[in-house]
Amino acid sequence: MVTEVIAFNEEQELIASSALEFLRGRCSLDDVREWMETETGFDAELWREIGALGWLGMGIPEEFGGADMGTTEQVSVIEAMGRQMFGSPFLANSLAAELLNRSGSEAQKRRWLPGLASGETVGCVALGESAGSWDLSELTARAEIDRAQIRLEGEKCFVLDAQNADLFLVACSGRGEPAVVAVERSQLPEGALRSERIVDETRRSARLCLDGVTLPADALLPGGDAAALRRVQMLGALLVSAELAGATQGVFELTLEYLKTRVQFGKKIGGYQALKHPMVWIMVGIEHSRSLLYRAATLWDTGEDASEIETAVRMSKAQSGEACTHAVDRAIQFHGAFGFTWDCHAQLFFRRAQWAEYSFGDAAHHRRHLAGLLFGKPAA
Amino acid sequence: MSETVEPSVAELEAFREEARRWLDENTPPKPDFKLPDSFLEVSSEEQFEHLRAWQRSVYDAGYLGMTWPSEFGGGGRQQIYQSIVNEEMADRNRPFMLNIVGLMWAGPVILKFGTQEQKKRYLAPLLRADEIWCQGFSEPENGSDLANVQTTAVRDGGDYVINGTKIWTSLGTQAHHMILLARTDPNAGSKYRGLTFFLAPVDGPDVEKRPIRKMTGEYGFNETHFRNARVPASCVLGEEGQGWAIAMATLAFERYAEGGQAGGLDMVQLRVAELVEMARECRRDGRPAIEDPIVREELVRLSVEERAIDMNDIRRNLPRLCRERPDAIGLMRKLVTSEFRRRMSRFAVSLQGEAAKLYIGDPAAVEDGDWQRHYMNAYSVTIGGGTSQIQMNILGERVLGLDKG
Ligand SMILES: Cc1cc2nc3c(=O)[nH]c(=O)nc-3n(C[C@H](O)[C@H](O)[C@H](O)COP(=O)(O)OP(=O)(O)OC[C@H]3O[C@@H](n4cnc5c(N)ncnc54)[C@H](O)[C@@H]3O)c2cc1C
């Protein structure tokens, strides 16, 4: 079969453009600033609406209340979100849905997926730990599994949207192997969640203390092994690279606008090549990011060769992380002292870029892995 | 162009197979003299004849000018066929075409602006490399500021009389015709007006050609002096005074910002995979260079960018994914690929360690010193056809809408 290098049909285009249109109308940077000050970080009404639009169930099969679409659609929606700086538990929920759908039992899926699809319940994944490593092969959080029950201990960190979540899919080490358990909020003791102060204030993230959590034996995801964790991390990298590509475009437009209005020495500052030329390279960075992103999404949906898919995802994340980091850096500088203020929106993108670059592996991390994929491992 | 039905996937695969076979059976063996990196550095008779014969055989086999109308010597087929041939040539790094100024720049503008007679007269001989073309845009005093050209063309009966100097004329020595930008009306009020575009004969005695030597030691471009050179009025392309618009259209073809070229390659293809192979051979601290973390990092960076460029070439044909800046990928291509080529060749040289100092002609030079020459010749694409700085101005102003400086 001959498959397309980059697949993107009319329906997908419609989803992408209507997502952007919808968010443009409902999520301005001023709105983002308002939500940022709230406890949850997002607008519950808007969350219900995107649930009704079917965005939350895009990756979930129809039989569990989802729309059974591909990653390409999710990537389009997330790109629009990144551009508008939309926060919300969308990312966390999408990853939880994917992990559950791939690794959960029939009963687990039936129990939780419909809620995740409608937005009634929010899911999240607890992967990271305090060492800050993106490698999950040495998990310190542990699950003691016996026939009747599972006892957890240890701590998870950087749990995205933990504060907003009803369901936690927790990566831990059980019987010496990586395992995933499903924990409901009601199963957490008082004080198990401690909010993290993170650089991107539009996001919510927390530490999750597992000590004393006891679960019934059926909380274990039967397919939740090392491969499943790698897969959800890869999907995380792909989805965050969509967010980065969108954010790069967003901050680029913000800066461009300033370069077209701010006057110094009697002319618009965008006429100066010292600003104009770097803006061109930022645009090049966005075009590169998008092409690699759509290629990775296409392969995620249709590819068969695992290392080809992994290569494409890592390239996408490395490229869009680097491009966004550079774009936000120049955005601050090109706004002058105003760019250094709280009130200038550039800081929102700057902080988002910081958050996103270090989520699911930064550019250097992915390049290191790409070297192995592309050239083979060095001899010991 | 005469075909309108979409070819099926099976048809295209069969065609690809056939093109591949033809290329395998008909590519000439490597000659015992060195070929240049591109059409720009053709310095000797034997290089010229070798490349001319190759272009001719490709054309005669039906693999060049495939989209051009058949009444003018083209194949009258859809672009996809030529694209397949181009891809196969690139993948196998087949020799490039010789008559690039004709195939990629002059031909497309003649098709776009020419009269029926002009198309009949010029296109078929150009495809067969029977007639070689060159470009007379730049002048000693007017390079980036192309609109300021001062070469004059004065109407005299049925002719124009040309005076002035063009420079950096690639393939100028061998050329029969020149796409020439000259000033027909010095009092038009603006430098952009009063320019006229000629399809000028340059093989007569009233045109003097002086070769210029390049930094690599090669030749390939000239100074071209016109002293009362007579050009028939039938050689004007478009209208008198329309020169600037046609020159801009020419540059869009030259920079591959617009399609319609005859096809084939214009230079040696350089791919990161070749650097990876070289890094396996070259040594660092008692190990293959490919095991050095810093080498790996740079090779990955180059691989990611190469993939992005390849994917851009795919995406630019998917209008759905280019709504925001429909022209951006096309217009940035020249800047991006030329700067990439320069960076990649420089890194290729650095992989060689101390052997990086050896140049073509030294028996111990790595890969015959080719990368040292690729590196130098990379500037021909970051400067020629409009410098990178000018490309950034164009992108900043036209695509991003920023003020002119
Ligand atoms: C290998 C090669 C082959 C060529 N073949 C041909 C040919 O066949 N026919 C032909 O007509 N021409 C040809 N050229 C000429 C080429 O088009 C010019 O060299 C080019 O347009 C630049 O002009 P210049 O050399 O006069 O440099 P200049 O215009 O003098 O530029 C000097 C420097 O100033 C920079 N600069 C100039 N203006 C600006 C600005 N506004 N903003 C920022 N920076 C600026 C340039 O980028 C450059 O770095 C060829 C050039 C090369 C290198």
Structure description:
The complex is a heterodimer of chains A (380) and B (405). By secondary structure, chain A is an alpha+beta fold. Chain A folds into three domains: 10-122, Orthogonal Bundle (Butyryl-Coa Dehydrogenase, subunit A, domain 1), CATH 1.10.540; 124-219, Butyryl-CoA Dehydrogenase, subunit A, domain 2 (Beta Barrel), CATH 2.40.110.10; 226-375, Butyryl-CoA Dehydrogenase, subunit A, domain 3. Chain A has helices at 10-26, 29-36, 44-52, 71-84, 90-103, 106-118, 226-261, 273-302, 306-334, 336-339, 346-357, 363-375; strands spanning 123-126, 142-145, 149-153, 155-160, 167-174, 177-184, 193-195, 205-209, 214-216, 263-264, 267-268. In chain A, the strands form three sheets. In chain A, strands 1, 2, 3, 5, 6 and 9 form a six-stranded mixed beta sheet that branches. A three-stranded antiparallel beta sheet of chain A has the order 4-8-7, with no helix packed on it. In chain A, 53% of the residues are buried. Chain B is an alpha+beta fold. Chain B has three domains: 9-127, Acyl-CoA dehydrogenase/oxidase, N-terminal domain (Butyryl-Coa Dehydrogenase, subunit A, domain 1); 133-254, Butyryl-CoA Dehydrogenase, subunit A, domain 2, CATH 2.40.110.10; 272-398, Butyryl-CoA Dehydrogenase, subunit A, domain 3 (Up-down Bundle), CATH 1.20.140.10. In chain B, the strands form three sheets. A four-stranded mixed beta sheet of chain B has the order 1-4-5-8. Chain B has a four-stranded antiparallel beta sheet with strand order 2-3-7-6, with no helix packed on it. Chain B has a two-stranded antiparallel sheet with strand order 9-10. The chains are: A alpha+beta (380), B alpha+beta (405). The interface between A and B is large, with 45 and 46 residues. Bound molecules: flavin-adenine dinucleotide (FAD). Residues 40, 134-138, 143-144, 168-170, 221, 380, 383-387, 389-390, 393 of chain B line the site of flavin-adenine dinucleotide.
